[in-house]
Amino acid sequence: MKRVMGIFDTKKSLKILFVATEAAPFVKIGGLGSVMYSLPRALRELGHDARVMIPKYLSVDESVHKLKIAYRGLEVPTENENEPAHLICNVKRYDPENKSTDPVTTYFLENQEYYEQRANVYGYADDAVRWALLCRGALEFIRLHSGWVPDVIVSSDWQTGLISNFLKTTYRSDPLLSKIATVFTIHNLYFQAMFDHKFVSEMDFDDGHSPIPAFNSSRLEHINCMRRGIIYSDVINTVSPNYAKEIMTTEYGELLDDLLRERRAVLSGILNGIDYNLWNPETNKNIESSYNSKHLDARIANKTALQERFRLPSDKNAFIVAIVGRLTRQKGLDLLPHTIETLLTELPIQLTVVGEGEFMSFFHDLESKYPGKVAAHLKFDNVLPHLVFAGADVVLLPSRFEPCGLVQMEAMRMGTIPIVRKTGGLADSVEDYNPNKETGTGFTFERFDSSSLMISFVRAFENFRDKKKWRELQRRAMAEDFSWVSSAKKYAALFQRSVEIHSRY
């Protein structure tokens, strides 16, 4: 009798292919790139054969990563009524030399017109074609290069949402591809397609059930790939348990909450992790002085170095507040104009900002108005956050919504205490401080308003003044386990479940 695997049976080794738009260290724009580096590696350590496929962008340096041809002249069907009937691609391959540090085996879909002649990853008028090409190109590669066939394909966000759609329609009778289970990961439900999903005419509305348009059809630009990923995938997951619950509500569901409630039986949330080798204060080469939770006094050297780096007055007693990441409304930064100037005026704080986005001019003006108290590095930086989290006292994350969030985990790992709004992954990863019970790892608030933020900020500052209790708070935060090991085991179980569900069809 054939044995049916349950969700907690993770002993069987799986072949897993992640198809995404970015993956570190080859190309990283946001959190997705970090996940596509760390999660497959963690699954590899558990004994699974996890691999990744992304486009071969201009920025991918072949001399550094030593790519080799895996398939030449791959013909990807376009379904165009006129020429071209196919787009010609190559597939190149990267193999790790050191499995303890290198990324997993990675495939690159190479096409001059849509990937290699572009300076950026996102933001082109023909992005709908670029991502449709990635989805169908990945499937054609598997179909024609049958030396390695995954048990599961994992797609991420709207850009690769058509993979499960293609598999359930175009390739439903294919003897090879029809056997592959699909998992659709929602990293951020807000972004669903080429357009703003909240302003769609009745004529352009995509119910998700019509055939996928040809590559040269203007209709392709109006396809809601997020909706289709949710409809056609065997299993759906988000990047935190709380966000999985939130997106089934009208407030957070981005007009897809009805559909998500229909599919709630196969919807779950798994909290993302962080790279503990990278975010390790004992071995981190990007900080001034190494330390651990037993020797937190050594952080003072990092605080001084951080103040020097941002040209702030050297003061070991200053309350350093950090803001790191995308400077956008999603991150709740529109609360700051109502609070931050009062805090800067009334309290001995220093504010350091690292990132870019729509609030750059606000922080630039704030820096000019409060010299010696505010300093901003207004561009994306991979290295500087390490020093910030090694020297700052708190990190501010008052997000409107936050599917997972990595910043709070990275900060806690380094001993910086988060002040967060209790939403999404922030609610899953930060426990509110209770001085009476001596529990908690940060300061949280629920209502999205400036008064709630102000109260949490003042709570943090008042507790910071009690050095003994603050040290204990730091130690609890640093002791939290946000490594990928725990998350990878849950993902492995989820992938096993997708195989089980798919086998029923």
Structural class: alpha/beta
The overall average pLDDT, rounded, is 95
- Give the end-to-end Cα distance, rounded to a whole number of Å: 18 Å
The major beta sheet can be summarized as: 9 strands, mixed
Strand content: 15-25%
Task: Report the C-alpha radius of gyration, rounded.
Answer: 24 Å
Biggest sheet strand line-up = 3-4-5-2-1-6-7-8-9
Q: How many distinct beta strands?
A: 15
* CATH homologous superfamily classification of the largest domain: Glycogen Phosphorylase B
Helix content: 25-40%
| Uncertain residue segments | 1-10
General shape = globular
> How many domain regions?
2
- What count of helical segments does DSSP give? 17
The name of the CATH architecture of the largest domain is 3-Layer(aba) Sandwich
Reported by name, the CATH topology of the largest domain is Rossmann fold
- What is the top-level CATH class of the largest domain? Alpha Beta
Describe the structure in your own words.
The protein has 505 residues and is α/β, with parallel strands linked by helices. The protein folds into two domains: 15-273 and 485-502, Rossmann fold; 296-482, Rossmann fold (3-Layer(aba) Sandwich). Helix content is 33%, strand content 16%. It contains 17 helices and 15 strands. The chain has helices spanning 31-45, 62-65, 112-116, 127-144, 162-168, 225-232, 241-246, 257-262, 299-309, 340-346, 360-369, 384-391, 407-413, 424-429, 450-464, 467-479, 484-502, and strands at 15-19, 49-55, 68-77, 86-94, 106-110, 152-156, 181-186, 235-238, 267-269, 319-324, 349-354, 374-377, 394-397, 417-421, 443-445. The strands form two sheets. Strands 3-4-5-2-1-6-7-8-9 form a nine-stranded mixed beta sheet, sandwiched between helices. A hairpin with an 8-residue loop joins strand 3 (68-77) and strand 4. Helix 5 (162-168) crosses helix 6. Mean pLDDT is 95; it is low at 1-10.
